[in-house]
């Protein structure tokens, strides 16, 4: 997929922006986002941004447009076809997720719409379910717009960090820094995920991972992993190549 995107970019910068808008659109579109590997594709696009092939601000704008169009179309589809959708066999197979989304929208509509944009399984469902529930547009639009503004750079970020690291000259013995950067990113993500599992351990039912990660184990595993992640961040910050890396990231953000 990244090779295909790079081919587009060599043809025209406009193609890359169209690709970003399309990925964001289909990742946000009702139900389609459940089967589309949008997270991987956004990270690949982020790597191209980090390497300087795509302008950060243009990519952000294209992502916002794709998100908004996908969410608004999903909301309209939910509102227009709410009765057939309730009878659709595909949705009946995901009834548990659908019921949880409906309950969350009833209880905390603003929070659910905003946070749901960043959670893979609910991202393509929340706007559609909001339409099915006849949620007033004045309640849907503000958190939806905020979420669509923040989502693209959030999902670009892993790729941007990786792409910027690739641009560090090899003659500067940068391999150790790149491995440390990768290790820090993985451990930090794992620590945040374990903390999230611990936070929701007593608030929701069990799933496939509960047997391996019960609350008692998470009580020491989550904070322990977070300590390791913080130590890795400190080591990374003190690395001699960090100023060069930050300078590359600054040029990416400034669009140079």
TrEMBL record:
<feature type="domain" description="VTT">
    <location>
        <begin position="36"/>
        <end position="159"/>
    </location>
</feature>
<feature type="transmembrane region" description="Helical">
    <location>
        <begin position="56"/>
        <end position="79"/>
    </location>
</feature>
<protein>
    <recommendedName>
        <fullName>VTT domain-containing protein</fullName>
    </recommendedName>
</protein>
<feature type="transmembrane region" description="Helical">
    <location>
        <begin position="217"/>
        <end position="237"/>
    </location>
</feature>
<keyword id="KW-0812">Transmembrane</keyword>
<keyword id="KW-0997">Cell inner membrane</keyword>
<keyword id="KW-1133">Transmembrane helix</keyword>
<keyword id="KW-0472">Membrane</keyword>
<feature type="transmembrane region" description="Helical">
    <location>
        <begin position="145"/>
        <end position="165"/>
    </location>
</feature>
<comment type="similarity">
    <text>Belongs to the DedA family.</text>
</comment>
<keyword id="KW-1003">Cell membrane</keyword>
<feature type="transmembrane region" description="Helical">
    <location>
        <begin position="12"/>
        <end position="36"/>
    </location>
</feature>
<dbReference type="Pfam" id="PF09335">
    <property type="entry name" value="VTT_dom"/>
</dbReference>
<dbReference type="InterPro" id="IPR032818">
    <property type="entry name" value="DedA-like"/>
</dbReference>
<dbReference type="InterPro" id="IPR032816">
    <property type="entry name" value="VTT_dom"/>
</dbReference>
<dbReference type="GO" id="GO:0005886">
    <property type="term" value="C:plasma membrane"/>
</dbReference>
<feature type="transmembrane region" description="Helical">
    <location>
        <begin position="177"/>
        <end position="196"/>
    </location>
</feature>
């Amino acid at each position: 997929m990244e090779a295909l995107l790079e081919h587009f970019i060599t043809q025209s910068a406009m193609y890359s922006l169209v690709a970003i808008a399309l990925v964001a659109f289909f990742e946000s579109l009702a139900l389609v986002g459940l089967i589309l590997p949008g997270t991987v594709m956004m990270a690949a696009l982020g790597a191209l941004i980090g390497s300087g092939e795509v302008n950060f601000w243009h990519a952000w704008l294209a992502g916002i447009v794709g998100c908004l169009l996908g969410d608004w179309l999903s909301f309209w589809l939910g509102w227009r076809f709410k009765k057939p959708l309730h009878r659709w066999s595909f949705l009946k197979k995901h009834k548990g997720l659908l019921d949880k989304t409906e309950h969350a929208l009833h209880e905390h509509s603003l929070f659910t719409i905003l946070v749901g944009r960043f959670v893979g399984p609910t991202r393509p469902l929340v706007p559609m379910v909001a339409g099915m529930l006849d949620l007033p547009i004045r309640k849907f639009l503000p958190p939806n717009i905020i979420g669509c503004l923040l989502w693209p750079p959030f999902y670009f970020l892993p790729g941007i960090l990786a792409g910027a690291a690739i641009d560090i000259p090899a003659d500067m013995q940068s391999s150790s820094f790149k491995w440390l950067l990768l290790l820090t990113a993985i451990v930090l993500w794992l620590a945040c995920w374990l903390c999230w599992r611990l936070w929701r351990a007593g608030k929701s039912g069990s799933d496939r991972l509960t047997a391996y990660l019960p609350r008692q184990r998470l009580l020491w595993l989550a904070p322990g992993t977070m300590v390791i992640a913080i130590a890795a961040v400190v080591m990374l910050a003190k690395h001699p190549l960090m100023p060069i890396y930050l300078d590359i990231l600054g040029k990416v953000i400034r669009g140079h």
